[in-house]
Amino acid sequence: MTLDADSDGPTESSANADPLLAVEGLRTVFSTDKEEIHAVDGIDFDVREGETLGIVGESGSGKSVTARSIMGLVKSPGRIVDGSIRYRGEDLVGKSEDELRAYRGGDIAMIFQDPMTSLNPVYTVGNQIEEALELHQGLSGSEATDEAASLLESVNIPDARRRLGEYPHEFSGGMRQRALIAMALACDPEVLICDEPTTALDVTTQAQILELLQDVQRERDLGMIFITHDMGVIAEIADRVGVMYAGEIIERAPVERLFAKPKHPYTRGLLESIPGRNPEAARLHTIEGDVPTATEPAASCRFAPRCPKAIDGCDRVHPSAVAVDDADADSAGTDGADDGAIDGHTVSCLLYPEDRSREWRLEGHRDGDSIDATDLEGARTDGGTDETTSRGADATTSRGAGKATGDDASADTRDDATNEVIDE
Amino acid sequence: MSRLGYLARRLLLAIPVVLFGTSLTFLIIRMGPIDPAAAIVGSPDTPSAQAQYERTREQLGLTQPLWDQYVEFMTDLLLFDLGQSWVLSPGTNTYDLILTYAPRTLWLGFWSILIAVFVGIPLGFYAGLNPNTRADYLVSFGGIVWRAMPNFWLAIILLALFAQSQQYFFGFDWSGFVVDSEVTGAYQFSDITTSEGFVREFKRVLPAALVLGSASMGNEMRIGRTAVLETINSNYVETAKAKGLSTTKIVWKHVFRNALIPLVPVITSEAFLLIGGAVLVEVVFGINGLGYLFFQAVINGDLPLVASLMYVFILVLVGVNIIQDILYTIIDPRVGLEEGSA
């Protein structure tokens, strides 16, 4: 029973249509005496069998907290305050520590960023793999040793049997990450969360580990969540991508579409920052500034202060997800049978939908979780325009705008941004 | 294999340390202000006394060249020919003196290390597992206070409390509790194998052991707390959690063993302090142990006894160091790595 995910049970082919893991409206907040940090602020995504969801974003955008929220490993003072995490329909939010533990490893396994410190230095690699085998597959003794050896072989560690008896410090970085992958596989999971598994490794090792993860996923039909800040890695491994910024997913799309037709100014910025993608540019493009720390519920677009395309209104209205039709959207039609928002391309930006006027868009984003054309027609008439324009007038004297949103913390940066607003 | 090699290396390195320490002892004794002949016969102020003084010097071998004295001194000690006491109890073999006094100190040291380890470390680990709770604050604060109390002061206070327990503890009679025992005085080991004798001697050693172990207990608690906190936030503990292991297994398997690593040198270095601290405590509690014997020997200029005791102390320290290395190699597989590859 080496690499056979089927041995686990008969459930699998029938469940194909339903997502393995569905996250909805997840909010994780870190409360300190001084402030509340909204590390993950209402994100939705799902993962199906055999599929890789890439989550990409800068440092501090909330990627790792998302992963830890799913595992139930958010460290104090962080806690999940809202939303649901459904694994095969079962909501994990609100479950007790003991109940959550039943899901960890065997159902949802995780591979961490730093292989150098993620193995316990005082136990042999074999011991740590066999520990997982015993817990999740009930193997012990020589059976467990055999299985552990074949797992190590399957992650391309030569001389596996001897390596089992060695300690982590006798392994190189790439080997340790392989051992950690073997350990995660020993749990026989359905979903594998990889939190920047290649960040700490050198480039050649990175490529090998990516390839290994892809092989492993294919063999076992795993649902995979791959977290990284590296757009190149995303292009290689992901099927669908969610772009995270300051705790929110601001754009999601199948990977080809995201790279071909990025919609959000932030995504465009990220793509332009990949070296070599834009050979004629003399200097590499960068996005000025840092990811802000979200200390209050979102009342505006959090990217607005850094956004080169910010319009009047970005500092007052929090954008909702808009489904954007790519011109060649025929591919969406093929498997659009279930939720179009999942397979389709959505973006949370006040610039969309592009074919509507600015006021219409502001109003629409202010109102809804998702933009629906019919809703918006109605919303537009009931006096909302007045409010928008009067607020808009305030905003031209930019100082007032910062206060209007109650977001004093970043008022300074916002002032700069609004001064440069390209008013339509 | 490399770990065995590492141990062998440490054992070999211990030899020059013993030689150097013993040589230094010789140097200090011979160069120091104590004149052993005068210590035996008194100051030579009359001609007859002068003659006796010279005779004694001759007998003691002090007229020989210093180099010869050194060689004799070293070979005798290394062969455990510890000589005889000159002043304290003239003519008695030093060896016998040590055999009489040492068990008392060992008994005291054993319990003070054990109590400190078995109280300090669990408390520290508990505080580390429940950081920033009321219990943690209580333990941490208590640890600092306990550690801050000086040995000699704590000894006197505990002595007073235990000796007059009826007055302070609402009529609870410590001396008569379970078996009759006194609070002070040298230990009697003649009937230690019987349960009554064991309980009696344990009761007697308890106050002194508490005092002697107090500093180490506080240290072990604080370092244990920090070590557990550090370990529990480490990446490998997160990996273990993500694996789905139970909290019990994570704490006992993954946290404690790693948290013990920084405690090893603390425990062993406290063992050194016990030798020095024992003198004070032994005096206050009236225990005639090695510390007391050493102190008396130094004051009275009983040089062979001083030298022999120093030699014993050096051996104990080196031995404790080697025990520390053995503990390291058992707990932490990374120890000995460099030696292994060299």
Topology readout:
The complex is a heterodimer of chains A (424) and B (342).
Chain A: E1 21-31, E2 36-47, E3 52-56, H1 63-71, E4 78-87, E5 90-91, H2 97-103, E6 108-111, H3 125-137, H4 141-154, H5 160-164, H6 173-186, E7 191-195, H7 203-220, E8 223-228, H8 231-237, E9 240-245, E10 248-254, H9 255-260, H10 265-272, E11 321-323, H11 330-334, H12 340-343, E12 346-348, H13 358-367, H14 373-381, H15 384-396, H16 398-404, H17 411-419
Parallel strand pairs in A: 3-8, 3-9, 6-7, 7-8
Antiparallel strand pairs in A: 1-2, 1-4, 4-5, 9-10, 10-12, 11-12
Helix pairs in contact in A: 3-4, 3-6, 4-6, 6-7, 13-14, 13-15, 15-16, 16-17
Chain B: H1 2-31, H2 36-41, H3 47-60, H4 66-78, H5 94-129, H6 134-148, H7 151-163, H8 165-168, H9 195-232, H10 235-242, H11 247-260, H12 263-285, H13 290-300, H14 303-331, H15 337-341
Helix pairs in contact in B: 1-4, 1-14, 5-6, 5-9, 5-12, 6-9, 7-9, 7-12, 9-11, 9-12, 10-11, 12-13, 12-14, 13-14
Summarize the model shown.
By secondary structure, chain A is of the alpha/beta class.
Please characterize this protein's 3D structure:
The complex is a heterodimer of chains A (424) and B (342). Chain A is an alpha/beta fold and 424 residues long. Chain A has a domain at 5-245: 3-Layer(aba) Sandwich (Rossmann fold). Chain A contains 17 helices and twelve strands. In chain A, the strands form two sheets. In chain A, strands 6-7-8-3-9-10-12-11 form an eight-stranded mixed sheet, with helices on both faces. In chain A, helix 15 crosses helix 16. Mean pLDDT of chain A is 79; it is low at 1-16, 328-341 and 373-424. By secondary structure, chain B is an all-alpha fold. Chain B folds into two domains: 1-87 and 306-342, no CATH class; 101-300, MetI-like fold (Orthogonal Bundle), CATH 1.10.3720. Chain B is built from 15 helices and no strands. Chain B has helices spanning 2-31, 36-41, 47-60, 66-78, 94-129, 134-148, 151-163, 165-168, 195-232, 235-242, 247-260, 263-285, 290-300, 303-331, 337-341. In chain B, helix 6 (134-148) packs across helix 9. The interface between A and B is medium-sized, with 32 and 25 residues. Chain A: Residues 21-271 form the ABC transporter domain.
